[in-house]
Amino acid sequence: MTIRVGVIGTGIIGADHARLLGGVIRGAAVGSVFDLDADRASAVASPLAATVAIDPSSLIADPDIDAVLIASSDETHERFVLDCLSEGKPVLCEKPLTPTVEGCRRIVDAERATGRRLVTVGFMRRHDPGYLEMRRALHAKRIGAALLLHCVHRNPTGPPGQSTASLITGSAIHEIDLARWLLDDEITAATVHVPRRTSQASGATQDPLFLVLQTSRGVIVDVEVFVNAGYGYDVRTELVGEQGTISVDAAAPTVLRQDQAASRALAPDWRPRFAEAYRRELQDWVDALAAGRDPLSASGRDGYLATLVAQAAVVALETGNTTKVEIPASGGG
Ligand code: ISE
What we know:
Strand 2 (about 30-35), helix 2 and strand 3 (about 50) form a beta-alpha-beta unit. It is built from 10 helices and 16 strands. By secondary structure, the protein is α/β, with parallel strands linked by helices. It binds (2R,3S,4s,5R,6S)-2,3,4,5,6-pentahydroxycyclohexanone. (2R,3S,4s,5R,6S)-2,3,4,5,6-pentahydroxycyclohexanone (ISE) binds near residues 170, 171 and 270.
């Protein structure tokens, strides 16, 4: 059985997903693609023998398309996910599910009305071998109860004109989901500290930011998000427990020793760093669709709760106050 996927948005990540689905992922094929830039869509579609859809609605409604992957700009996610739900089609939406809490609620409620789990959110770190090992070790009680989670999230350069809030809603949202998934806990409060601004940030973007999140069981999660760090893509996490710590560090295992120095390469961006996580995420999604089971990835509710925390952090940034997060009992509640 082959799952024929329609891909909406063929920018950096959408094009990568399409290539994986069309050539690497077992049991999948790319049936159709759409992008506002028709040339970019054709460049992705041609080698995969996929069609180029004239608009996103016809791609979603196409009876030859079994499932849809959304990798278009964040503010378009809600409309496309809701269209998939109206068609009763499974959808894998890149993070964030939507940048607004209200949009996420509408999605969660619409999915619930279908009576099926159709929405999956692309928080790929849940499939990264290092983070999976960290979670297994914590759950096997190798380091005792979790106390603190230290996170570093650095990119070489942010896009020009990037809003300060998007450092939280587009980047630190990975750590928000990671903390919920790793700790099996909810984040109940957010504070954002604003250090001196780097001269490397464009326009008025405040970069870096330092988030302090608190979970319902009292674990403190700190996140340094620094998107113009310059030197490479550097994502690191250390989980501190009562009897030890576990770290995930992206540095390559290969060490170059030369000129009185030892060095390890860093990835230029997130794609090589998380290549295996993306592959596993897509393979699990396709396998789950074929088997009629739920994917292991984040659900629509996970996407909603990540945005709820991210938006509380944006309020904390804007007001300078600690902002509480009220976790709804179920659904979009
Ligand atoms: C970026 O915004 C992303 O979308 C990637 O998923 C992430 O890994 C990266 O670090 C973010 O800044």
